[in-house]
Amino acid sequence: MTTNEHVKVIPRWSTERGHADHGWLKTFHTFSFADYHDNRHTSYGALRVINEDRVERGTGFGTHGHQQFEIFSYVVGGQLEHRDSMGNTEILSRGALQSTSAGTGISHSEKAYGPQQVHFLQIWASPRPGEGYKKPAYFTRTFADEEKHNKFALIVAPDNSSSVVLQREAKGPAPVRSDLWMYASIIDPGVSLVHTPVGKRQEQKKGYIHVIQKSGYNPGTSSGATVRVGSPNSDAQHVELREGDGAYLSYPKGEDLEVSNVGQSTAEVLLFDLD
User: Which residues pair with 80 in a beta bridge?
Assistant: First the structure.
């Protein structure tokens, strides 16, 4: 279904993200984080942090604490070792998603495991009002590449939605105490996907899309896989994004989003529905 209005796409170019190279850690910040601050990019809906991190072998984030936030990690390559104060110890490989509801407070560490660098995205979401100081919780999910191939696989969803199973390990999306839905897709060249945001017919919606930097660490001009983002069947408001780029999305009532791989290599993207 389309309307006379179109999805508004506001690019967040990779070169404009916050960036730091600490040697052991190479990181990009979509939103204000650590020493990077930009009043124009502090959050969007419930989405508070998208950090694309590369951590060298034998190093990582030592034990540190969190409260309130929903924190989840999406592993792109290598292996991530997670330990926390709830007694959870995990080795997470490509396709794994680890989710923590920090609630009243937890401490954890995240380190590269094994002989290789680990490449992962750490994402934070703000909890719904009144949900921030509940008992902490921990969940893991695994999504094979085949589950994301040329489709949008739902990998995170609100804990009060029907698609969620409230078990530490289960099939389907990981639960969060936020009004946020996160999808992952691996899109072949020449393939176009259409996404219908949750609740689109009732109200205007927000969204965000991020193209993962799969071709390697690149602090310069975006390169690699290229996707075209906008309303289906319309040239209005279409934007081309390359690896590391993202975009804020604003949906009019009743409008879908089309994501087309117009490049020569496979694209891996994360897509968010936000209230």
Answer: 92, 112
Q: Give the pair of three-digit tokens for residue 26.
A: 């190479």
Return the ∠ at Cα 243 (arms to 182 and 99), rounded to 5°.
30
Burial of residue 57 (CB within 10 Å: 0-12, 13-18, 19+) is: middle
SS3 14: helix
pLDDT tens for 82-114 read 999 999 999 999 999 999 999 999 999 999 999
Instruction: Answer left, alpha or beta for residue 146, where phi above 0 means left and psi between -120 and 50 means alpha.
Output: alpha
Separation of alpha carbons 55 and 110, rounded Å: 9
Count Cα atoms within 13 angstroms, Cβ side, for 250.
Answer: 7
Q: Report the sign of the C-alpha dihedral through residues 253, 17, 36, 124, in that order.
A: positive
Candidates 155, 154, 212, 150; CA nearest to 187 is 150
- Are 107 and 73 in contact by the 8 Å Cβ rule? The answer is no
DSSP classification of residue 255: -
Which of 253, 187, 267, 183 minimizes the C-alpha distance to 225? 267
Tens digits of per-residue pLDDT, 192-208?
A: 999 999 865 567 789 99
Computed from CA positions of residues 73, 100, 61, 29, in that sequence, does the dihedral angle turn out positive or negative? positive
